[in-house]
Amino acid sequence: MQNTVENTLDKIKRTGFSVETNILSENDIKILTEECKKILLNDKKDIELKFNNNNFKKYNISETIQTNYNTKVRHLAGISKEVDNILNKFLLKNEIKDILNKVLGDGYKLYSCGLRNATHKSSYVGLHTDADYQFSISIFLNDISATNPTTVFYKKTHLLPFKFASKFESINIKFFAKNLIPATGKKGDILFFFNKTLHGMKQSDNDNDNSTVILLCFHPAGYPHKPWNLPNSSYYDQSFLNGLGKELKKLFDNNLDLYTSKDGELMIKETNNNSGRIIDSISSNNNYNVTDYFKTINWWISYSISIIYRIFRKISRTIYHG
After folding, report:
1. Rounded to 5 degrees, what are φ and ψ at 206?
2. Against a cut of 0.85, is the pTM above it?
3. pLDDT tens digits, residue range 38-93?
4. C-alpha–C-alpha distance, residues 76 and 243, integer Å
């Protein structure tokens, strides 16, 4: 990595995100790029799912989905043995393991493992935050500049006493453009970010600027997490789980013995080695100062103005259309 793990963690804690280089080998980047391109283009036959339970999330690896944002997304694991081997090796790298352990502690699980492809035809994704306890890693599969459709961040918003959620998601991100930082880098670079940081996706500035990334989102032990409803088999092994490398298998493992129930919600069982992990201080931060609260007042004012604007817009459209 270009910086030490501690420097990377310091930047993520301060700004909410960081892009790092020189983690994957050139050969691994080449294989990921070529294989993922083929995966996005080719649908596969349906595979029987092992479970039929509302407490489990369906992990369908047979199709690429076109979203409402005109992006393409697809679950990734279990399709290409080469890709899964590289991801397993990546997640076991000392620097990656060190970052994940210091942020999430022991026992974390994968909430998502998939591909996202955005083109010049993709629309913006409005600013939002996800669960406060989520932490994500994104692998760039092509060079991404500020003109590409890419994730954008409003830095340091993960440190404010304000619940953003979807309050600003319906507003075009161009209104926030001067304060947004796009995630940019070379093919193979790695983006780390707290999902509590206000973020969205900008549109492409040119007709030929596309972007494809691998998205990995993690949940720590002691927090809500739905196990995966996994296929019986992968496209290269008779057993989906047993075909994965040791680390990926652990992160996908849906054995209910690894979970506990609290208020009717499944949670990953807590371990004894999670004191001092960073995610706890991010998800339940109570160490705010006067400046933080003043910044929050500005966000409440902005939110109130946006509500008034939407009400007047709806009234005017109703009057105009009779």
Report:
1. -130, 165
2. yes
3. 999 887 777 766 655 656 888 989 889 999 999 999 999 999 999 999 999 999 99
4. 14
Burial class from Cβ neighbours inside 10 Å (0-12, 13-18, 19+) for residue 303 reads middle
What's the token pair of residue 56?
């489990």
CA distance 152 to 138: 13
DSSP result, 160-217: SS---TTTTTTS-GGGGGGG-EE--B-TT-EEEEETTS-EEEPPPSSTT--EEEEEEE
pLDDT for the residue numbered 11? 97
Structure-token pair, residue 125: 């994704």
Three-class SS of residue 252? helix
**Nearest C-alpha neighbor of 168 from the set 157, 182, 156, 181:** 157
Question: How many CB atoms neighbour CB 192 within 10 A?
Answer: 21
Give the C-alpha distances (Å, rounded to integers) separating 249 from 87, 228, 239, 321.
11, 12, 11, 56
In order of 67, 171, 248, the CA distances from 119 in angstroms are 12, 20, 29
* 188: its two tokens: 């193979």
Tell me if 213 sits within 8 A of 143, measured CB to CB.
no
Residues in the chain: 322
* 8 Å CB contact between 50 and 159: no
User: CA 213, CA 211: separation in Å to the nearest integer?
Assistant: 7
In the block, which residue shows the tokens 């060079």? 143
- Which stretch of DSSP H or E encloses residue 152? strand 151-153
- For all residues of the chain together, what is the average pLDDT? 92
The 10s digit of each residue's pLDDT in 134-168 is 999 999 999 999 999 999 999 999 999 999 999 99
